[in-house]
Specification:
- The protein is of the alpha/beta class.
- The protein is built from 11 helices and 12 strands.
- The protein has a single domain, classed as Rossmann fold (3-Layer(aba) Sandwich), CATH 3.40.50.1460.
- Helices cover 34% and strands 17% of the residues.
- The protein has a 6-stranded mixed beta sheet, with helices on both faces.
- The chain is globular, with a radius of gyration of 19 Å.
Length: 350
């Protein structure tokens, strides 16, 4: 029987000491992570939820390493991230724009190459879904979105309409109606300059991606195109709100491509979600109903028909419904995560 593990990351703030005084305040990222955890829990995933101060680089990579160690062919891992994205200058000629894309975790920025390296640890036959509700837009794009939203009631309504279609119980009212999920360039420059040596060491020890180095089947669902901004409004990221609406409490029955198309169709015209693939054995994976835990491969490795619903055959999957809560000393969190995940993914007796 296949195993499903989900890691949900959401940051409504970052550590000002790690970002040269900037706190990265958002209003909907924790709500997104909580709502996505409820979604994966409802279809049988074991979940680890890391919010704001708990979402450190150490904790996130400890969870990914543990999952990669425990999951085997036929299993599935879902990683969702809600928070700010960024761009960090690099001298590497392999980056066309000479920029590394980043996620802003509580204690530091995480390079896209670090995330890629973590994905290489997953075994062949493991399915990985990464959902990123953030963006890496530069100053010009951020300013464009700010002006559009300030001056166009129609544009504001297009975002509010998406949020209105999904109201998660966790959503809270917000005085900051609209926000771009990308760190301002000047704030990022100050933060990187303050920890220049640290980021240089991270870049030096992180291998650049190579063709064929990811054995798992990986799908990346991103909130917007590279030249767009990911927005949040009314207590949720716009992309996450659209995803939850299309999911319809498990009522969606199409495959991953149709899921992406439906989300894309429900988004404002200024924010177009992206769907990218990486790794091997993607055809059967893409043909599944999203978040199906059961493997798409039959007993002889042949592709099986997509299931009508992830809940259609509960006897075929081993389900977990326990969330992780790390209390006490934050330094002990990575070991607690490793122990927790190892126990959660251990085959059940009998």
């Amino acid at each position: 029987m296949s195993t499903g593990f989900a890691l949900h990351i959401g940051l409504d703030n970052v550590d000002p000491q790690a970002y040269a005084g900037w706190d990265g305040a958002l209003d909907g990222a924790e709500n997104d992570a909580t709502a996505m955890a409820a979604l994966t829990g409802a279809v049988g995933f074991k979940r680890c939820v890391l919010l704001s101060s708990r979402a450190t680089s150490t904790a996130v990579f400890a969870a990914l390493r543990s999952a990669a160690t425990q999951l085997v062919a036929g299993d599935i891992c879902v990683v969702t991230y809600a928070g700010h994205g960024g761009q960090m200058p690099t001298s590497d000629s392999e980056e066309a724009d000479r920029l590394d894309e980043t996620w802003l975790l509580f204690d530091r920025e995480v390079l896209d190459d670090e995330i890629h390296q973590a994905l290489t640890a997953f075994a062949a036959g493991v399915r990985v879904v990464v959902v990123s509700d953030s963006c890496h837009s530069g100053t010009v794009i951020r300013e464009f979105y700010r002006q559009v939203l300030e001056n166009s009631a129609k544009a504001r309504a297009s975002y509010s309409d998406v949020a209105a279609r999904h109201r998660a119980p966790a959503a809270r009212s917000s005085a900051r109606t609209f926000a771009v999920r990308a760190v301002p360039a000047q704030e990022q420059a100050r933060a990187v300059a303050a920890q220049r040596d640290r980021y240089l060491r991270i870049r030096q020890r992180t291998p650049r991606p190579a063709d064929g180095d990811v054995s798992a089947a990986v799908l990346l669902m991103a909130a917007c195109q590279d030249n767009q901004a990911a927005m949040e409004t009314d207590g949720h990221g716009t992309f996450t709100a659209a995803l939850l609406d299309v999911w319809n409490d498990g009522g969606f029955t199409g495959d991953y491509r149709k899921f992406h198309e439906r989300i894309r169709a429900s988004m404002p015209p200024t924010q177009t979600p992206n769907l990218l693939t990486l790794g091997r054995d993607l055809a059967g994976f893409l043909a599944q109903v999203p978040l199906t835990i059961a493997s798409p491969a039959g007993p002889l490795g042949t592709s099986s028909s997509p299931q009508a619903s992830p809940l259609a055959a509960p006897d075929r999957v081993r389900t977990f419904r326990v969330e992780v809560a790390i209390e006490g000393d934050a330094a002990a969190a990575p070991e607690a995560l490793r122990t927790f995940i190892a126990q959660a993914l251990r085959p059940a007796d009998g």
